[in-house]
Amino acid sequence: MGKIQHLLTGDDRDPRIELGEIFGVSVPTHGGVQPEALAWARTIVDPASVSMVEAIRQLRQAQPKLGLKSATYLANRLYA
User: Fold this and answer.
1) 27 with 20: CB under 8 angstroms?
2) 52-62 vs 68-78: helix crossing angle, rounded to 10
3) Domain ranges of the chain
4) pTM, 2 dp
5) Which run of H or E residues covers position 77?
6) Neighbour tally for 40: CB within 10 Å
7) What would the DSSP string read from start to end of 4-57?
8) Around 66, how many Cα atoms within 13 Å sit in the side-chain half-sphere?
9) Which of 16, 20, 31, 63 is exposed most, by the fewest CB atoms within 10 A?
10) Nearest to 20 by CA among 74, 77, 80, 75
11) What are phi and psi of 26, to 5 degrees?
């Protein structure tokens, strides 16, 4: 039911919560992305050679549990 609810109403979860669940780490209190998730993303994506859309695709392909919102959040941090 959760996935259907997200499709109908949108995903309003904090993407850091999903990243924490996937990488087995807590959500930082300071508001940043988990260093473990960002380090992993850097092993998957080279921001200098692909577009952000391609980066999101590569992240989701490498980790199927990663939702679109969390992958976009992570890609935005890679390109920051």
Assistant:
1) yes
2) 120
3) 13-78
4) 0.82
5) helix 68-78
6) 18
7) HHHHHH---S-HHHHHHHHHT-PPPTTS---HHHHHHHHHH--TTTS-HHHHHH
8) 22
9) 31
10) 74
11) -85, 165
Look-up of token digits 């080279």: 46
Single-letter residue type at 10? G
Q: Which residue has the tokens 């669940």?
A: 21
Take residue 63 and report the two structure tokens written for it: 């980790």
**For each of the chain's 80 residues, which pLDDT tens digit applies?**
456 665 566 667 889 999 999 999 888 877 788 889 999 999 999 999 999 999 999 999 999 999 999 999 999 999 98
- Answer for the pair 32, 38: CB distance below 8 angstroms, yes or no: no
